[in-house]
Amino acid sequence: MEMTLQLTIDCTDVQRLVVFWSEALGYLPEPPPGGHATWREYWAATGVPEEELPVGAGDTPESIVDPAGRGPRVWFQQVPELKAGKNRLHLDLKVGGGRDVPLTIRTQRVTTTVERLIDAGASVLRTADEPDMGHYAVVLQDPEGNEFCVV
User: Fold this and answer.
1) pTM of the model
2) Residues 72, 35: contact at Cβ < 8 Å?
3) 36-61 pLDDT tens trace
């Protein structure tokens, strides 16, 4: 049996996170399958009862995909409650190039990405700047408070 991996992120504003994480990961909103105009239309065609679809569900893409087909699909599941505590799982966006790359170059790569993501709606929680250890990373939050790192 083949297994695939999907990352699911609970949120209250699906479209805001689709836009943000598309920018953050270089992903694209996932088009509905089989020539359907919307995901809602696709779900109806596959037999999902209307009462299981909240108002607006599937009218616009609720998932994003890696255009290269390497990374996992990310689905943004609308939930009524806000984020309540610290993430127990988070993403690391590894843009620095690893320890074979000089720290000054890694720091600049991280800083450039962080600035782009702040412009897209992220906020910085803290910076891990440990030159003695050859480490530089920034912990951010997406627009709904989900934590992730840029390393």
Assistant:
1) 0.88
2) no
3) 999 999 999 999 998 888 788 888 89
